[in-house]
Amino acid sequence: MTSLSPSSTPAASARYWEVDALRGLMLVLMTVTHLPSRLTDPLGQPFGFVSAAEGFVLLSAFMAGLVYSRTAHREGVDAMRRAFWRRALKVYLAQAATLLFLFTIIAAVGLRIDQPAVKDLMSYYLAQPHEGLMFGLLLVYEPALLDILPMYIFFMLLSPWVLALALRHGWFGVVLASTAVWALAQFGLSEWIYGVVVRWTGLPVPFHEMGAFNAFAWQFLWFMGLWLGASRSAPGAQPIRLPGWLLLAAAAIALYGLYWRHHGLHGQAPFGANDHLNLLFDKWQLGPLRILNLVALGALAIGFGPALARRLPRLHWLEAMGSASLPVFCAHLVAVLLVLAFYGSDQTVRPWWGDVVLLMSVFSALYAVARATLWVDALKAARAGRLRVRG
Q1: What is the number of other CB atoms lying within 10 angstroms of the CB of residue 44?
Q2: End-to-end CA separation in angstroms for the chain
Q3: What is the CA radius of gyration of the chain?
Q4: Could you tell me the CA-to-CA distances from 269 to 45, 51, 352 in Å, in that order?
């Protein structure tokens, strides 16, 4: 993964290339998982009972903690807060654009050819178009596949207050509160809050149409990543060193999770039809054994990542996709929605060579989006630099 220590060069201090490459990998895995093909099930949760979504959220939080804590140290808390708000607004505009794409082009195609995958995906909007549009733009109604960015926005809006508090008073209280909220989420906190809101406001959106991710559980992952990133920008931060016994335990847990996932009797459902036990690994609730699996993988990445990063060749195409993660993520949603509209959700509707052509075409488009984004960003940076020189 990364040495998780402050970089020594100015260019490297801006961001970690290893984290960008890992975020690019998470985007690749999400795309393969969301595109219906013969690779969807084998590459879903490929490293154990942990999906690309956990890695993407954790790494995004790490970068947010790293970048925005530097802003707070250098320019003050108010500047850090404004930077968070600008980023949240940018993510919201991306979510709104993707939502409108779903409600217009995808809806038109899906209804014209009577595509069940599209009709199921946006059933609430088709039944209540005015409420669906309004509550979708308010980030209350979250169709499947479009439910991770609203959670991301929620975390971005909370982060400046949490980060400012932690920078002043330390992270112990933040970690304790976040853990408590996660624990309450395992016992119905979201459903209880939803019930209270419905009683007081008459909110018409059904609970199951408000996104699969339990934000009260997933905030734990975000704020742990924020803490880890902020710790790397602290003055005098030292590389994280993990003891050998911990790495050995992490390896045992990770290998067992990997074996269970791919050689168990039930694939991605660790306990088969036993829903009660499956909650221990539940993705949407971020179950406790799922966190244990993720922590084990994270410990191995911290312990062995630096050596691997020095020896393996840099995959610049993955770094580019990770650096332009928001446009690439939205582009992957556009590709997935188009495939669902024209082909449906059947993973075997195309021959093998058709799946290969589809995946190659989609990833070529995603890489083109990443390169175009980075090119535009470089032009903006160059223009801003010239303006500073003239000023």
Answers
A1: 17
A2: 40
A3: 21
A4: 11, 13, 26
Bridge partner list, 210: 142
The CA distance from 87 to 157, in Å, is: 9
Q: What is the pLDDT of residues 166-225, one digit of tens each?
A: 999 999 999 999 999 999 999 999 999 999 999 999 999 999 999 999 999 999 999 999
Going from the first residue of the chain to its last (391 residues), give the mean pLDDT of each consecutive group of 10, the final group possibly shorter: 39 66 95 94 90 94 94 93 96 97 95 93 95 97 95 96 94 96 97 96 96 96 95 80 94 95 82 90 96 96 88 91 96 96 91 94 97 92 75 61
pTM of the complete model:
0.91
What backbone torsions phi and psi does residue 210 show, to the nearest 5 degrees? -105, 25
d(CA 210, CA 195): 13
Classify residue 22 by its DSSP letter: H
Angle CA 324–326–331, to nearest 5: 95
| SS3 category, 210 | strand
Q: Cα–chain-centroid distance for residue 324?
A: 13
Asked if 261 and 281 touch (Cβ cutoff 8 Å), the reply is: no
The neighbouring-strand residues paired with 142 are: 210
Domain residue extents for the chain: 10-390
DSSP state of 142: B
304 contacts: CB under 8 Å, gap ≥ 6: 247
C-alpha distances (whole Å) from 190 to each of 134, 194, 215 are 22, 6, 8
Angle between helices 288-311 and 244-263 (to 10 degrees): 110
Give the CA distances from residue 192 to residues 77, 139, 153, 185, 221, in Å, rounded to whole numbers and listed in that order: 34, 19, 22, 10, 21
Query: Six-digit token pair at 8?
Result: 């020594």
Amino acid at 188: G
